[in-house]
Amino acid sequence: MSLIPESGDTEDVGGGGGARRSGPPPPGLYFIATPIGAARDITLRALDLLRDGDVLVAEDTRSLRRLMEIHGVPLAGRRVLAYHDHNGSRARPALLAALAEGKTVVYASEAGTPLVADPGYQLSRSAIEAGHPVFAAPGPSAVLAALTVAGLPSDRFCFLGFAPPQMAARRAFLSEARSIPATLVFYESPKRIHKLLNEMVSVLGAERGAAVCRELTKRYEEVVRGSLAELSAHFAQHEVKGELVVLVDRGQRDVVSDHDLEAALKSALAGASLREAAAQVAQDLGLPRRQVYQAALAMEVKE
After folding, report:
1. How many domains does the chain have?
2. Quick one: 168 and 212 in the same domain?
3. DSSP bridge partners of 55
4. Cα angle, residue 199 at apex, residues 196 and 203 outer, rounded to 5°
5. Cβ–Cβ < 8 Å for 264, 281
6. pTM of this prediction?
7. Which of 3, 126, 151, 234 is deepest in the core (most CB within 10 A)?
């Protein structure tokens, strides 16, 4: 358990203090979200951190320097260090050393929020294990932007990232996702969107509601909504470019009979406590945990 007190560098809006800055940020590792399209989507706090950070790190150093130029944030003699999937193991020691010296290290991935289908996880874990504070400066996210405009339920969602490129692995991946009781969110490339939608029709169901969001917050932003069958037919006739987020409505589970529920509980109770068995069966069958627990209690009374 981490007991490190971690506090941000701005006053809490909820505390009535307004948006005044309270001085330079304390030492630590800061993950900042960067625009996924419109440059003005950068947050004021992210700009503060880019101006005040001791060490600037980016997945793409040119993109971060360009973003700073647009917003008039000077480098002031600082370098922008590269950190991405291909050099992470080599770059981490120097960044951890900077944190150990009490410096402020600011990391930005290419677009959106670091760690969300972007580099940063191993850096975050290493910093935490070394006892350094880790902060997030939240902001743009393609996942959340797509959920906002898709017109699908957003109270519960599951982000699944990119589907595997190989067909067999992709179909197995979709089969596992089929019964998740949440809106499914995927990233996909323009080159593979046709294959993905075709296989979604086959594996997830042709009538399942969906949306494909393209180039969110950019000049040619587009959201196409419909059933998976309709989207598959649409994109079979249209070549697309740009970043894509695919969202699929939650599936409708089959009605579970009392006999099937009792059989599942008997099997689960053979190797687990009543509470553990009820939790597992509820998850497997997509039923409310309380309903399954009450059914398990009733079975015990019968016996």
Report:
1. 3
2. yes
3. 105
4. 130
5. yes
6. 0.78
7. 126
